[in-house]
């Protein structure tokens, strides 16, 4: 509505709408463009400024106080502060002059400064423990502001696993350890995450991070449980930074500090975090170096039981023997060299009781299409299970029908390596297993349900039966038989000849020059024996006198001790011997009362045994003497003449 005059109203709404519609219909494109440009525009306002906190207020006061002091020092007490903008290059040059090495900066950290920083934070924020620890970590990192960290320092290449905490003064280490022990795991968990984030942020800005690294080491060494409970989170963090290799190595290094003091914790970190990190080609070297360090510190890997689970072991197996895994050749060789130690850790000390759980997984994983290295490893591991854990045979019998193809290849491998493996198997169990397989094969053949692996199993089972039942060639018996035969022929030839020199054996030896060689050897042996005899004649009395002089007193002492022992034993055991004699008489009387003819029968049997022993002893002595005399006369007539 619009007022038309002082006393009347006029309705103009509808006509206005029509007018605007008619005007819009007649407007051209250029006019529309001008109209839109003249339209009022909405400008976005700046974000609302964040309120000041107590902590920022304190920081501003300190910064303002420092500026006022600098201004008074330059302008005097009565002059206004003057800001000199052209002094930055000089300040930068001064900072460059103060650059020190990382080791020097670590050694200069004062434990009293750490304690005073912690006390100051407690006074400012008495109820906020997170701020205390974060201030202490930030202060520790500020000690390295004049240190230029190189790429090797960031990745800690060529440094021990305990670096840089090992280079920190002992008193400073004690202060940090005492601080860690005072706070709860929740607070320390928050601090660990904060230090990792700050380490990554500062390294992105090319700033020092050694202070945060030291704090991470202290936390991981003394409270490893706060890290082990969040390995999946650090794995996600690793994936988000996979395009930044230095960040990935820093994360792996920080979490891997748990294993510096505890081998089991280190293996858990490697299996859950570093094993997946092998897929990142730029940082794959670090997990392998870390594993080499862990296994190098553990002298007996098998003593660390329950470290590598069955599932984790087969993850490692798939990576090591996977030719398509994206890993450099030198790293593959190093990982392959470490694989036996991981397998030993998985088997544990009680392999005779644990390998029965590995056998089904080996059998299920076997496939003819696998690469040769993996197939050979699976077959060797299955043979290891069968030869070490005897319960693996029963497990194999249960899984035979389900894995016919794998069983056929295993039987064929045993047949092929029978000369090497036959001594390792329990022949009784192997024969029973082969018979069970033969019966199963007959049932399958009768039903006509054999799959593609059945012919191989049937042929391998029959071949194994032949190898088990067929004994090896008796080489030892053959050699013994040949020696006995040759010796008998030579003995008969010498015995039937008028003399040893007239025998065919001696003529054969003389004809081919063997007798001459034997005579030379005998002469040399005789010469050596004569020399040895002369030496013994000269030196034996000397050594005997020396031994008597040095050992004689000890021998006399031992003999006297033995005599004293025998005399003492006779005196001490005299009452017991008298008691045993009395009891023997009682025993004799008791047996006689029960059965009077018992002792008579025993006496008669002893007489018979004595007569038989005496007669046969005399017979043996007579015949032995006669045989000895015959041999002596034969040697005298045939050899000595």
Automatic annotation (TrEMBL):
Keywords: Apoptosis, Endoplasmic reticulum, Glycoprotein, Membrane, Transmembrane, Transmembrane helix. Coiled coil: none annotated. It is found in: Endoplasmic reticulum membrane. The chain crosses the membrane at residues 473-495. It is a multi-pass membrane protein. Residues 1-33, 65-96 are annotated as: Disordered. GO terms for cellular component: endoplasmic reticulum membrane; Golgi apparatus. Critical mediator, in cooperation with CASP4, of endoplasmic reticulum-stress induced apoptosis. Required or the activation of CASP4 following endoplasmic reticulum stress. Belongs to the TMEM214 family. This is Transmembrane protein 214-B-like isoform X2. It comes from Biomphalaria glabrata (Bloodfluke planorb).
């Amino acid at each position: 509505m619009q007022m038309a005059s002082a006393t009347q109203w006029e309705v103009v709404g509808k006509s206005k709408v029509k007018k605007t519609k008619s005007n819009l219909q007649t407007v051209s494109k250029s006019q529309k463009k001008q109209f839109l440009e003249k339209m009022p525009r909405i400008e976005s306002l700046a974000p609302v400024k964040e309120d000041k906190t107590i902590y920022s207020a304190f920081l501003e006061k300190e910064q303002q106080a420092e500026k006022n002091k600098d201004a008074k020092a330059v302008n005097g007490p009565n002059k206004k502060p003057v800001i000199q903008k052209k002094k930055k290059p000089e300040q930068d040059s001064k900072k460059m002059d103060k650059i020190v090495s990382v080791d020097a900066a670590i050694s200069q950290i004062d434990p009293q400064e750490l304690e005073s920083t912690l006390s100051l934070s407690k006074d400012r924020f008495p109820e906020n423990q997170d701020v205390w620890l974060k201030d202490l970590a930030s202060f520790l990192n500020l000690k390295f502001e004049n240190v230029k960290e190189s790429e090797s320092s960031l990745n800690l290449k060529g440094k021990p696993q305990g670096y840089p905490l090992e280079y920190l003064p002992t008193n400073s280490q004690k202060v940090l350890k005492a601080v860690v022990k005072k706070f709860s795991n929740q607070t320390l968990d928050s601090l660990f995450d904060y230090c990792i984030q700050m380490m990554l942020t500062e390294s992105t800005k090319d700033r020092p991070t050694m202070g945060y690294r030291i704090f991470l080491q202290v936390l991981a060494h003394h409270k490893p449980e706060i890290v082990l409970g969040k390995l999946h989170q650090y794995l996600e963090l690793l994936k988000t930074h996979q395009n930044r290799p230095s960040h990935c190595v820093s994360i792996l290094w920080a979490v891997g500090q748990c294993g510096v003091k505890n081998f089991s914790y280190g293996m858990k970190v490697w299996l859950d975090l570093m094993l997946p990190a092998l897929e990142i080609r730029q940082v794959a070297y670090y997990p392998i170096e870390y594993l080499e360090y862990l296994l190098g510190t553990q002298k007996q890997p098998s003593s660390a039981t329950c470290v590598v689970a069955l599932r984790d072991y087969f993850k490692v197996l798939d990576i090591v023997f996977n030719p398509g895994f994206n890993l450099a050749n030198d790293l593959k060789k190093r990982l392959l060299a470490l694989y036996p130690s991981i397998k030993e850790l998985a088997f544990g000390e009680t392999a005779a009781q644990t390998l029965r759980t590995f056998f089904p997984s080996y059998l299920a994983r076997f496939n003819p299409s696998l690469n040769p290295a993996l197939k050979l490893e699976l077959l060797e591991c299955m043979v290891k299970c069968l030869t070490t854990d005897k319960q693996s045979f029963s497990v194999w019998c249960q899984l035979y029908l389900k894995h016919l193809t794998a069983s056929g290849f295993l039987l064929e491998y045993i047949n092929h390596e029978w000369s090497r493996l036959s001594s390792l198997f329990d022949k009784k169990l192997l024969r029973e297993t082969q018979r069970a397989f033969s019966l199963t094969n007959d049932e399958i053949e009768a039903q006509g349900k054999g799959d593609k692996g059945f012919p191989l199993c049937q042929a391998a089972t029959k071949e194994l039966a032949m190898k088990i039942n067929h004994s090896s060639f008796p080489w030892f018996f053959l050699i013994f038989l040949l020696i006995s035969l040759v010796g008998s022929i030579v003995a008969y030839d010498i015995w039937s000849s008028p003399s040893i020199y007239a025998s065919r054996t001696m003529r054969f030896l003389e004809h081919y020059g063997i007798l001459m060689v034997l005579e030379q050897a005998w002469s040399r042996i005789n010469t050596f024996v004569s020399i040895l005899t002369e030496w013994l004649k000269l030196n034996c009395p000397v050594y005997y006198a020396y031994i008597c002089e040095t050992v004689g007193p000890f021998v006399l002492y031992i003999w006297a001790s033995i005599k004293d022992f025998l005399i003492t034993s006779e005196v001490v055991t005299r009452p017991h011997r008298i008691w045993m004699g009395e009891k023997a008489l009682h025993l004799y009387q008791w047996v006689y009362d029960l059965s009077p003819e018992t002792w008579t029968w025993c006496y008669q049997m002893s007489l018979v045994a004595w007569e038989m022993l005496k007669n046969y002893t005399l017979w043996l002595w007579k015949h032995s003497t006669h045989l000895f005399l015959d041999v002596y006369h034969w040697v005298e007539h045939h050899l000595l003449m």
